[in-house]
Write a structure and sequence with these properties.
Elements (H helix, E strand, L loop, with lengths): L1 E2 L7 E2 L4 E2 L4 E8 L4 E2 L4 E11 L4 E2 L4 E10 L3 E3 L4 E7 L3 E3 L4 E2 L4 E2 L3 E3 L4 E2 L2 E2 L3 E4 L4 E4 L2 H6 L5 H12 L6 H6 L2
Length: 176
């Protein structure tokens, strides 16, 4: 479901896949090739949310902010993850049920482990695991995984769109 709020409507690139079971409201920008899966909530009622190109916002993930939230390109936000404000760089994997708190600033090429709770600055090329999140250097294998973390999901989003399983943006634009 896509809804305007206070005169601001989500702007979604036509190549994106958005599940009919996702909820997107307010001042949201969703980039080219991005996929938004069932149960995802993107609620920009207090501030804007910008999602870059080729991101994958998976089932039951939540994006919300009190002022501004920005995801770079190729961000893989896995099942149940929560990002509440701040900035996330490009080529970032956010593990299952991980939480990024307000004002988090995540660099590029970062692997955030499942269940981690992250606050503050995370430098480029880092691994974050635990509660609270402990920052470590990436292994070679982890760095390789971040080179194109969303490629599989870009193709899956196209497959879903081709089979008529995504929202019809023409309906939304006409006000139906």
């Amino acid at each position: 479901m896509i809804r305007p709020l206070d005169g601001k409507s989500p702007r979604i690139h036509p190549s994106a896949f958005v599940s009919e079971a996702a909820y997107i409201v307010g001042d949201v920008v969703i980039g080219e090739g991005t996929s938004i899966w069932p149960g995802a909530v993107i609620r920009a009622d207090y501030g804007d949310i910008i999602i870059g190109k080729n991101c994958s916002i998976q089932d039951n993930a939540v994006l919300h902010t009190d002022d501004h939230l920005e995801l770079g390109n190729n961000v893989l936000m896995t099942h149940g993850a929560v990002v509440h404000g701040g900035k996330v760089g490009s080529n970032v994997l956010i593990g299952v049920n991980a939480v990024l708190l307000e004002d988090t600033d995540v660099g590029d090429n970062v692997f955030i482990g499942a269940g981690a709770i992250v606050r503050g600055k995370v430098p480029d090329n880092s691994l974050v695991i635990g509660v609270p999140g402990q920052i470590r250097p990436l292994s070679e294998k982890q760095a390789e995984r971040l080179k194109d973390p969303t490629a599989r999901y870009i193709q899956n989003g196209k497959r879903f769109n081709e089979q008529g399983l995504g929202l019809d943006f023409k309906e939304f634009e006409s006000g139906s």
